[in-house]
Amino acid sequence: MRVLIIGLDAFDPTTFERLSNAGRLPNLSRYVAKNGYSRFTVANPPQSEVSWTSIATGLPPGGHGMFDFVHRNPANYALNVSLLPTKEGLAGTQFAEPYYAKTIFEQTTDMGQPATVLWWPAMFPARLKSMVRSLPGLGTPDLFGRLGVGVFFTTKAFDGKTSRKTPVVALQKNGKAYCGQLTGPMRKGKDGLEPATLDVRIEPTSAQAARVSIGKQSYDLQVGQWSPLFELSFKVNMLLSIKAVTQVILVENGADVSLYAFPLQVHPLGSPWPYGTPRDFVGQVWKDCGPFYTIGWPQDTTALEDGCITDDQFLALCKNVDRLRENVLMHELDRFNQGVLACVFDTLDRIQHMFFRDRMDVIEAWYEDLDKLIGRVEAKLRQRDLLNKTKIIILSDHGFSQFDTKVHLNRWLLDKGYMVAPSGTGGKGSMMMANWSRSQAYAIGLNSVYLNLAGREGQGSVSPDQREAVANRIRDELLQWRDERGRQVVGHVWHQHEAFDGPLVSYGPDLLVGFAPGFRASAQTGLGEWEATALEPNRDHWGADHCIDPKAVPGVLFTNAAALADFPNPSYRDIPALSIGTQPDTSNSTPPATSSGTEDEAAVEERLRSLGYL
Fold it and tell me: What is the mean pLDDT of the chain?
């Protein structure tokens, strides 16, 4: 058995078909000519962590337990990132596996065949007992256990409103240089816990260049130039130093001086948490290929949204992410003789989030680049005389759509009387202020509505015999909702039993909301919050999305496998059979982690807010 799976996150069928018909995607178009292409039915909801997990397992959310980016603990309404749940152990709070269902990669190793998986979402922390060789993707945190937030160093005056998420450090002039400090992990100081720090020094060498030093690392950079990835070491006690991986970019070097430091990433050979498997595989890739990005979301959309970097600087970063991933993939293709090799390229997803609205030229160029990538992969297999001896599967987890209007779903629930809570300044509020004895429902995540069910929620008010009636009323009113232009806000609403099947259905939301194209739950909704009005124009750089009705954002499937003819309407459920000839394995389907244990609430909230979608 020899199976190559290439994941192209967010590769949209409508865009593909338009460009293919124009002759601009020759490599992927050859699959169409050979009846090796189909639109692909994705998981519901069509969120990346849900969909890629369904592809990896062949299971619906009710089988693997990933229902949304945000899960909650019904006992106390506490939220957590589904990709990074935590648990209590002998060493204190630790990250827990986001799901336990068996993947096609583990099924492959059970057959005695090797499996290698590169940057697949929701595979952090590593399953240490697994025989699968892995480098994890989306969900891998930075050194602080967040999903990735950098630091902006600048001489500009800062009023606290310039940046939404990214912390700003004021640079101080010291002779001809500008100085600051980069904060690292906590250590024990004389007066208790304090952050370890490294000195940052920027010494202009010309109008367009400067020498940038952090700790013991120094680079001569031009304005707009990213440094290479480099290692830093933070000393936390006399015997222990913690390594990190980062890079910097000189943003400006004129009347004002600004530097952006990429999020501090875990070092794969010195991670405080299980990073990849096995350790010697991770070390060999690092040695042979050089440094690579370890954070699960290396395409720094937060820095772009916050104005820390420009469009061109963001695109340069994205190109480097894909370049380094391709380098590792080619390294593995040189050693690929049997089993399964899978690799996910997810930069197109980030590109479309940020440029779909008004830079279709950027989007189309990225589709062409991915088509060329497929050509290079095929050339590598042809060089080894393996092209016609390898089953190739190329697929995406969802398509894409415009995102013109933010939906503050909790505000709608308040306005309709399904939630009762006071609103604070400017009409804003949080479900943590709710009067639960009078509240029937609440929204969290990007597609989830939960009833405040007695016997399940800690302060439930809806009795089990009222459950269906309340859910029906909410569903019917959501489907009747129109904006001021008469556009339907919600395209579809599913009851829990309609949306999901499998042994874990009861852990999912009571109602799954499929927004109509153009609408998406707001970041505030994701966190159980609201604004003054239920609908708000989306003026963010993040101008497109896919967390809507899955029928509006199907994925793609390309393959040279003749078996595709047996799947006239292929979906994630068919991937085990199509790839390795098996059925989904439900033996390890266990409830999702819903509690953050005794972890500080502020740390959990910071992790939630560091998610690009929120």
Answer: 94
Check pLDDT > 50 for residue 163. Answer: no
Q: What are the beta bridge partners of residue 260?
A: 152, 249
Residue 289 DSSP label: H
The SS3 call for residue 611 is: coil
What CA–CA distance (Å, rounded) separates 76 from 92?
A: 21
Average pLDDT over residues 399-425: 94
Q: Is the dihedral of CA 316, 321, 322, 323 positive or negative?
A: positive
Euclidean distance between CA atoms 553 and 401, whole angstroms? 7
How far, in Å, are 84, 339, 453, 508, 530 from residue 410 at the CA level? 24, 47, 17, 18, 6
Tokens of 88: 């209590």
Of 140, 136, 138, 143, whose CA–CA distance to 264 is shortest?
143
Helix ranges, 255-408 (H): 279-289, 301-305, 311-333, 347-355, 360-383
On whether the CB atoms of residues 381 and 333 are closer than 8 A, the answer is: yes
Which residues share a beta bridge with 536? 406
- pLDDT value of position 239: 82
Residue 461 contacts residue 436 (beta carbons within 8 Å): yes
pLDDT of residue 597: 56
Using pLDDT thresholds of 50, 70 and 90, give the confidence band for residue 601: confident
In this predicted structure, the answer to whether residue 593 has a pLDDT above a threshold of 80 is no
This prediction has a pTM of 0.96
Q: Check pLDDT > 60 for residue 189.
A: yes
Contacts of 278 (CB under 8 A, 6+ apart): 133
pLDDT at 510 over 50: yes
Rounded to the nearest 5°, which phi and psi values hold at 21?
A: -65, -25
**Cβ–Cβ < 8 Å for 162, 178:** no
Residue 94, beta-bridge partner list: 87
Side-chain half-sphere CA neighbours of 81 within 13 A:
29
